[in-house]
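Researcher: I'm preparing a figure for a lab meeting and need a structural model of a single chain. I don't have an experimental structure, so a prediction will have to do for now. The sequence is pasted below. Please return the structure as tokens so I can convert it later.
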Amino acid sequence: MHAYRTHHCGQLRAQDVGSKVRLSGWVHRKRDHGNLLFVDLRDHHGLTQIVTDIESEAFKQLERLRVESVVTITGDVVARADEAVNPNLSTGAIEVRAREVSVQSAAQELPLPVAGEADYPEDIRLRYRFLDLRRDRIHANIVLRSNVIASIRQRMIAQGFTEYQTPILTASSPEGARDYLVPSRVHPGKFYALPQAPQMFKQLLMVAGFDRYFQIAPCFRDEDARADRSPGEFYQLDFEMSFVTQEDVFAAIEPVLHGVFEEFSNGRSVTPAPFPRIAYRDAMLRYGSDKPDLRNPLEITDVTEHFVGSGFGLFARIVEGGGVVRAIPAPGAGAKSRKFFDDMNDWARAQGHAGLGYINIKGGEAGGPIAKNHGEEATAKLIAALGLGPDDGVFFAAGKELPTAKLAGAARTRVGEELGLIEQGVFKFCWVVDFPMYEYDEDAKKIDFSHNPFSMPQGEMEALETKDPLDILAYQYDIVCNGVELSSGAIRNHKLDVMYKAFEIAGYTKEQVDENFTGMINAFKYGAPPHGGSAPGIDRIVMLLADEPNIREVVLFPMNQKAEDLMMNAPSPVSLKQLRELNIRIVEPSKS
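Model: Understood. Here is the structure written out token by token.
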């Protein structure tokens, strides 16, 4: 018999009754019934119930052990009584009567329980992450993550992609988020950077003629944590293709995403390919977001024209000053009390906005300050244009276009949640396309890139030379699922003359472009194919599939909000000897 186990803890069934077995695992739970002691023994694969009576030596050993101690148990498989069968457990038809117990490692008192799903403070969970990972839900999430990555790899290979590994130590980039810098010992005063993404390298792979590349790529960015973004590092399905249009990229990745979501959906429906395409400007108008959640049926409407010269003076003045008014429907909200509308207004103010106007319709009668001042005929015309029913409501956001769109989008989400309109049990995908190439930077008072400076502008050189920069669109696209942006992507600008012109509009000289992007510029001088790609986030994909609200729940060893690893005590000071080897001196931050 094997020293530790003949079976794992999720393996034994009714047909194994009468067998002598050996199991090893952690003591998950103990239940003392006086003359009988029941122990749930857990390993990676599942649970098996162990039973021993008070006359047995095994009873004495197990009784004094704390939960989470590691033991090896030798015993006999017996059938449970009919009334004791647990249909929710794969091993629920049997139990093992313990003959011998060998304690491999006795556990001390636990800083957090493993059995059960009680919520615990983040700092305790992260400091003792190895215990947190023993909990059923988190353990299952990490297994799901591994299975999802394996499925993605298979699907990418089936689509004709080949996996290549790009460097981890590279050059710092002036674009994007803050780099993590790595000092060079042999080149004093110089630094490597950890890659924010393999962007340059994957484009160079296309220049080198590899055609279809992918990798499950680690990426490093020194940026703050969010619910859908880990601080420090994350993983993405990075891919790039040569001689492709935007539609070719969509056609290649849609079967992968649809397939992996369908495989791990547990019965939830998935948008069939081809996924809907929504132009950026339409997304901002109809949904108030460039990552629209299509589970929410509400759509925003521009009603600016209805308030030109309106009796509702506040909106009339906003429109006269060049602002906009957006309407967010609230179907059935007429049945709500006034408190519902006031709470929405208070919420908007708490978000830093001036507030939300509203019209409340009860039995066909429109109420509220806007209806009262806008005028009966004008209000009736507005209600008809919005298609509102006799017991509906509508909220209004007004002001400059971009902040108004964002407020309307946030209000759309909140109204959908408050009224229970968000469709459950579905994964709704879409592409957001036709992003503007440039935007006006109010702080710097200049034109700047709005999304990705290496994207191909629609219309190429002709557009750059003849159009207002703020009217130029780019071949840039985002893939969105349930309101979560999985990735940005683009058809790349592979033409040097077009690239120099694109950067010139944003205020860069040819010399600056050559200096900052040496590797790519040099490569493009020797023949670059048209190419494009994207990089869906692995962590976000698994977060959606696991139905988790925070990305931390699907990452093995996450950092806290301050980018600290509490378990390994990182970042931490290093010795003076190490600093000297790297020719580095610590400069303490100013007290002020």
